[in-house]
Automatic annotation (TrEMBL):
Keywords: TPR repeat
Annotated protein name in UniProt: DUF4470 domain-containing protein
Top-level taxonomy: Eukaryota, Fungi, Dikarya, Ascomycota, Pezizomycotina
SMART domains xref list: TPR
Organism of derivation: Aureobasidium pullulans (Black yeast)
SUPFAM superfamilies: TPR-like
DUF4470 domain location: 173-263
PROSITE patterns membership: TPR
TPR repeat feature ranges: 5-38
Signal peptide: none
Length: 914
């Protein structure tokens, strides 16, 4: 008759085979207690602990089981080897590689143990110093974040300039914020900062109704990729700072500030008095940036960003008005407005002309200007007061008046990014075609999009007075309790650096409120790493949608169950492209259900108000138009093991992301509803690192990664069939009845093995198979290739890859060397017989794709990291390898092929360990 311990162990084995691992663990532990001398329950327990990802506990139970077996003198070699193998694998999953070699004898006869030891030796050789794993992991990750781009390259690196917002003003303040010691807000794609202003106003509105004196502090981090955006914000902040100081200010002085704010913030052409004030404010900003500490302490620009912002200000002061005179501005305003009117996706009814603004609306339409404040009309060369009062208005807006405007009024130079336009001229050669977007209807903005409700307005300026009076009053109210921190750069990169503490400039800052008190600064604080409210605007339209938001924004928000903290964004670029939010998530995440999103990213979405409201008929067929902001909240940090998606599901999902990232479906370009597929293959490693962090077992992820770097995958996943990636296809991805199919990813193998070698020290676990195909870090080098001709069309999209192809193998069957690249990558050899003589050989032997690279527009040069052995083959004069640039949205070649040998591709003399 079996003992109690044996019965419990056998019950545990039944549960183990059924996949009920936590129940099995309980039975194994009970069995071990029932017979403390028996190693068998502990051996079984170690296996279950390994499968659930508890590797430290697994190692402990292996060691206890081995001790008991040795004490009994009943060591079974097969059982002992199983324990050794399990311990070695657990140590590899813990990234404790030196301990693996300590546990395996140098002359170990067991083949599997010997293989594991060899793999560990290779990993240690590739990454010296990995024994100090935490220090090395942070150093390696910092280098990765700094040196490897997240997105496929653009061709035009000086991106478009979004100076004036397109959405209705919002506040991110919640009443609970006023009860906290400090609330941290982050605004990405800050644009004209309207949502920042709105948040200030709502804080002020709430706090002035409270009986107690407010003490809550507020930190605002604002982000944009353009130095011009931050420079514009600095000018506005300086003017608001001046306006908020109400002591000893005359009516004319106040009007000068308000008038300048009116013309700089949302206007195109300004009178001389506003121009003079703008220029003096620019001088003040330039002086401020040259000082080690800002002259007003609520606004702090990081040292790393000051030169770029200063350069933008200097150009506005000395160059921009020469390049873009007022006459040019007026012409472009009319042209851009016409383009905007013709936009087929412009929605909604026309906003009625606001009260008191009928004449301004006509003046704006005819002359591209609006009425200035009264004090600006003194010595007015246009005699606007008389023009507007005349019975002949607007017929008296003649060419003579327009010429006077051109000669006396000035352009709003803060709407121009000279660097962007210089790039446009270099790549297109035509100033007339330059895209500067002066289509904004300022009448609609002030009356329909911004919180401005003057009591008795007589002109548009009155709306600006109401607006900026409220904003400056809010600022005055918050002095000593507010700090604004601009950061220049790409949104996801900044989020990642904040999360990982890679911004030393943000540490040890003077504590908020100390400087204003006049007391010596005695305490310091770090700027926040966690934000209560993260407002992304529509930046995710360009940075991977919900997937990008989950990977980069969610980590800098706290866990909350009631949406007190959240990250939010909207779809503005292509809302008609998506049927609903589920299809939006399916396209970017390949996850068809909210329950799956919750089990991977631990985030839930609050339904939009518009989802429960009937939409106007004209909007019902236009997808996400009118949907507003998607509000997401992080619910937990860890997914309990029983709640994890199963291993086959996670495997299929990662394979699906790999194929969608590497081989996106072709799409029409240009298109008003273009959906971008921006991520490069580094996204796989960020996803894997995220999965490990939230509780998915490392050996699952290790196995997936080890298989991927082998060059082929047996998978249920499939390349993208439609744009967007439909919910139906996402569900099919996880259909367990689908058979596995073998899919070659050999063209991506050089990049994948290079990236895996680079990322492994940062992942926190090792791989059990595939170490032999990984290059050492010292043999990963940086290369460049320069192209003589590039097609710049739609070059702002993150859609470009480097393609290396061996033309000796890629012999066309016809007279022209047309390479059907996507069909090659899709393993469609049967469809390629009319295009290539040896399509399979091309894919397996003659093709290398690089998705992780950066292009420099001025020199037409791409730079990338790659394993040295592959590049030596490509650069061998005896081979026919050529480099070219392809775009993966419409899958065509845009960079004239360059022979890789004879200096076409250059080794830059830098290795990954340098």
């Amino acid at each position: 008759m079996a003992s109690e311990s044996e019965e419990l162990r056998q019950l545990g084995n039944v549960l183990y085979k059924q996949g009920k691992l936590y129940e099995a663990i309980k039975h194994y532990r009970d069995a071990a207690k029932a017979d403390e001398s028996d190693p068998a329950p502990l051996s079984n327990l170690s296996a279950a602990l390994f499968e659930t990802g508890h590797y430290e506990k697994c190692v402990q139970q292996v060691e206890k089981a081995s001790e008991l077996a040795n004490a009994k003198g009943q060591v079974d070699p097969a059982s002992a080897n199983k324990l050794k193998i399990r311990k070695a694998k657990a140590l590899i999953m813990l990234d404790r590689l030196p301990e693996v070699l300590e546990a395996i004898a140098p002359d170990e006869p067991n083949a599997e143990l010997k293989t594991l030891a060899d793999a560990v030796k290779k990993a240690l050789l590739s990454n010296p110093g990995i024994s100090n794993r935490e220090k090395v992991r942070k150093e390696k990750l910092e280098k990765i974040v700094k040196d490897l781009p997240r997105f496929k390259s653009v061709l035009l690196t000086n991106q478009e300039y979004y100076h004036i917002g397109h959405d209705e003003q919002q506040s991110n303040f919640k009443p609970i914020d006023a009860k906290q010691e400090k609330t941290a807000y982050l605004f990405a794609g800050i644009g004209d900062a309207r949502h920042l202003h709105g948040t200030w106003m709502k804080i002020h509105e709430h706090e002035r109704k409270q009986a107690e004196k407010p003490t809550a502090k507020y930190h605002f981090t604002i982000i944009d990729t353009k130095a011009t955006v931050i420079a514009r914000a600095l000018i506005i902040f300086l003017l608001l700072e001046e306006l908020s100081d109400t002591s000893n200010m005359s009516t004319d002085q106040r009007e000068e500030i308000l008038g300048t704010l009116f013309y700089v913030y949302i206007n195109h052409i300004m009178p001389p008095k506003a121009w003079q004030k703008l220029q003096s404010t620019i001088s003040q900003a330039i002086e401020l940036l040259g000082q080690p500490i800002a002259t007003f302490t609520w606004f702090d620009i990081l040292q790393k960003d000051r030169n770029a912002i200063r350069n933008a200000l200097v150009l506005w002061q000395h160059q921009t008005a020469k390049d873009w005179p007022t006459s040019e501005f007026r012409k472009r305003m009319l042209l851009d407005t016409m383009k905007q009117v013709m936009n087929p996706y412009a929605t909604g009814d026309k906003i009625p002309t606001p009260k008191g603004c009928k004449k301004d609306a006509v003046l704006y339409q005819k002359a591209c200007i609006v009425t200035p404040p009264p004090s600006f009309l003194q010595d007015d060369p246009l005699n606007l007061k008389e023009v507007m009062a005349s019975k002949n208005f607007p017929k008296n807006i003649t060419d003579v008046l327009l010429n006077k405007i051109d000669n006396t009024w000035m352009p709003n130079v803060t709407l121009i990014d000279t660097g962007h336009l210089k790039q446009f001229l270099m790549t297109s050669g035509s100033k007339a075609m330059a895209e500067i977007d002066l289509s904004t209807n300022i009448i609609d903005q002030w009356s329909g999009y911004l919180w401005s409700k003057p009591a008795n307005p007589t002109c548009l300026y009155d709306y600006a007075v109401d607006y900026f009076t409220k904003v400056s009053a809010a600022l005055h109210h918050l002095k000593g309790r507010i700090r604004v921190e601009p950061i220049l750069g790409e949104m996801d990169e900044i989020f990642e650096k904040i999360h990982l503490d890679f911004y030393p400039d943000r540490l040890n800052k003077p504590a908020l409120g100390q400087e204003e008190s006049g007391m010596p600064v005695s305490t310091t604080e770090d700027y926040p790493k966690i934000f209560d409210r993260v407002h992304l605007s529509n930046v995710p339209d360009y940075t991977g949608g919900t997937l990008g938001a989950f990977l980069f924004a969610a980590p800098i928000t706290p866990v909350t169950k009631d949406f007190k903290a959240q990250f939010s964004f909207t779809c503005l670029r292509n809302p008609p492209a998506f049927k609903d939010v589920d299809e939006f998530n399916s396209e970017y995440c390949l996850l068809p259900e909210m329950s799956m999103i919750a089990k991977i990213f631990l985030c839930v979405r609050r339904p939009c108000i518009s989802e429960s409201m009937p939409l106007p008929a004209f909007m019902q067929m236009q997808g996400l138009i009118g949907m507003g902001y998607f509000e997401w909240s992080k619910q937990a940090e860890i997914v309990p093991f029983p709640s994890l998606l199963d291993r086959p599901t996670i495997t299929a999902w990662i394979h699906g992301l790999l194929l969608k990232t590497a081989i996106p479906k072709e799409r029409q370009v240009p298109a008003m509803t273009l959906i971008n597929s921006p991520f490069n293959l580094t996204v796989l490693f960020r996803v894997i690192m995220h999965l490990k962090k939230v509780g998915y077992p490392s050996h699952w992820l290790s196995e997936i990664l080890g298989t991927i770097i082998g060059g082929t995958i047996d998978t249920k996943a499939f390349p993208q069939k439609s744009v967007p990636f439909s919910v139906k296809d996402s569900k099919q991805l996880f259909d367990k009845s689908r058979p596995l199919k073998r899919f070659s990813i050999k063209p991506f193998n050089a990049e994948l093995t290079t990236l895996t070698s680079i990322w492994l020290p940062a992942l926190g676990f090792g791989i059990l198979h595939g170490n032999d195909v990984l290059p050492d870090h010292s043999s990963i080098r940086k290369y460049s290739v320069t192209f003589s001709h590039v097609n710049w069309d739609m070059g702002f999209e993150s859609s470009f890859i480097l393609v290396f192809i061996d033309m000796d193998i890629a012999t066309p069957t016809g007279p022209r060397p047309i390479i059907p690249l996507r069909l090659l990558l899709l393993n469609k050899e049967d469809q390629l017989k009319n295009a290539l003589q040896r399509p399979r050989d091309v894919r397996e032997k003659g093709l290398h794709i690089v998705t992780t690279w950066q292009f420099e527009t001025e020199t037409k040069t791409g730079r990338f990291w790659m394993r040295e052995d592959i590049m030596k083959q490509l650069m061998d004069r005896r081979n026919g390898w050529h480099a070219c640039i392809w775009r993966v949205d419409r899958w065509d070649i845009v960079g004239q092929p360059v022979k890789a040998a004879a200096g076409g591709v250059k080794d830059l003399g830098i290795s990954w360990v340098d």
